[in-house]
Amino acid sequence: MAPLARSPYKGKSQRLVIAFDIGTTYSGVSYSILTPGEIPEIYPVTRFPHQGHVGGNCKIPTVIYYDKQGKVCATGIDDLGDFERDEVENWTKVQWFKMHLRPKSSATSDAADQITPLPLNKTVIDVFVDFMKYLYDCTREYIQQTFPNQPDFLASMDRNNAIDFILTHPNGWEGSQQAQMRQAAVRAKLVPDTDAGRSRVHFVTEGEASLHLCIQRGLMTPEMEKGEGVLIVDAGGGTIDISAYSRNLEKNTFEEIAAAQCFFQGSIYVTNRARCFIENRLNGSKFQDNIKYIFNAFDKQSKLTFRYRTLYVPANSQERDDKLGMSFGSLKLDKDDVVEFFKPSIDCIVNAVKEQRRTAKKTFSTVFLVGGFAASDWLYNQIEISMKSLGVKFFRPDSNVNKAVADGGVSYFIDHSVTARVSKYACGVKYNILYDPNNQEHRQRSSQVLHRVDGSQRLPNAFGIILPKDTQVSETKEFRRSYHRTSANRSDFGHLRDAILCYKGSSPHPRWTDVDKGSYYTLCTIVDNGQLMNTSRYVSDGRYYIIEYDVVLAFGLTELTAQYAWKENVS
After folding, report:
1. Cys-Cys crosslink for 412: which of 21, 191, 204, 296, Cβ 3.0 to 4.6 Å?
2. What is the pLDDT of residues 69-127, one digit of tens each?
């Protein structure tokens, strides 16, 4: 199918859109210049210092080197051959740092042990700031060189605050991770530290960016054109992101049809399993000093080329030891051992596809495998076997699609193809619920009853669900729930705040925040600046004050928004 037609830009003035795809292992940048009345085009940044031929001229390693003082020495490069040996011997290599930003939950706890630690006195935000600065500097230089006849273009965009930034992130990243990435963008001087500046930083999941890219590349099956669902499996360096969509034939847009999923089973975990195996074999041997070289060679060369046959990994040693499998400068790995390195990631994807088929609001028979890890023939072939048994059509787009999530990030901003998303968790607030003596659950908590100034009896720690799990939410739909507070002192209403909680546990009907306590996480906090106090009214016969308000959630965009709402001057 031909790509969906893109409309001319309807804005009144020129803007620049830049998307950063900061991946676990590789990163890329794309941009588009929006000119009123013209159809936007998307371009990748294809030149970086020290790049060579990494990533097909559009991606660079997500790597930074620091010296002992914490100063950036080199960025976006794996091979330090261009530098003097005595210059680099005290540098610290930082890679896979994106994984330090992951949500902290039981589902991600196993990932912690497999992530390279950050250098001393560096936070993950510090590293993101340095990497964003580098990407932005390279992007500006590339645009300037590409459009030499417009020397004042970037300066005019700066003056007019006309640059929008799109940051892609895994499906499992939430409000906390988005807030930290926005903080990094501010510190990296992408935007000023103002409300207007921060509003120019936008987010899109890697799954949704991949869908936009597939749409724009014309990767639509006849089933998709008829409105049937499609599953995007974005297999990256750190995460496996699973996203399901269907086409709304009336609106010619796409809607999410199942809650997006994110698993920590990307290609770096295959590398880590290989590293543990190699260490167990060679530790204490005369080849111990070769271990790092071997597993790096496995990561960069052998992993993606593996097929079901004996694997010979470069070892940087000409010594022979048949017992350890060392000969002719390589380490011999039995094919069945290598299969085990891949197995958890393959099982994860197959099981996730089955789960999405079970929960999706529409059927789907098409699955696209994208992302850098998709380049592995073994991964693709093993998943294809399972997909055939499920009656699913399984496709792997060409490598250019796998390297261009940043293109999809720009497309998300200008094409806006997805107009509804599915909530991954139940979201709401903790509140004091009215005590019901006829409710057995309430009677079991009778010792916790609170006596309020209005004469009511209430129980603490109730979970008031505002947005239920697995709810399809359009961009314009709001979810709200009414609450009230009472107090003998009006000043108690001066600084109200409510934490917006999400429940990630297994209970289908979570009701109490002190049950399965570890499964509740704070997404964000609403803070009132004193305006609610002005809406309070005095109840003379009870001699107390009361305020009434709604907590409103909007979840249709890629960022959650939460706010208080109230009525004023109502007689």
Report:
1. 204
2. 999 999 999 878 778 888 888 899 999 999 999 987 645 555 555 677 898 889 999 99
d(CA 420, CA 255): 5
Beta bridge partners of 321: 326
- The answer to whether 169 and 103 are in contact (CB under 8 A) is no
- Tokens found for residue 402: 């796998």
Residue-wise pLDDT tens digits, 401-444: 556 799 999 999 999 899 899 999 999 999 999 999 999 999 99
Q: Report the phi/psi class of residue 189: left, alpha or beta, with left for phi > 0 and alpha for psi in -120 to 50.
A: left
Q: Which of 99, 54, 98 is nearest to 77 (CA)?
A: 54
Integer distance in angstroms from the first to the last C-alpha of the chain? 59
State the average pLDDT over residues 496-523. Answer: 94
Closest CA to 317 of 329, 326, 305: 329
Short-list 96, 86, 110, CA closest to 62: 96
- What does the pLDDT look like over 172-215, one tens digit per residue? 998 889 999 999 999 999 999 999 999 999 999 999 999 998 88
Strands 418-422 and 426-434, bridge-based pairing? unpaired
> Quick one: which of 208, 242, 470, 252 has its CA closest to 361?
470
For residue 321, the 8-state DSSP code is B
d(CA 30, CA 214): 16
Residue 272, number of CB atoms within 10 A of its CB: 19
Tell me the C-alpha to C-alpha distance, in Å, between residue 103 and each of 148, 176, 264.
Answer: 43, 8, 11
- φ/ψ region of 471 (left if φ > 0, alpha if ψ in -120 to 50, else beta) reads beta
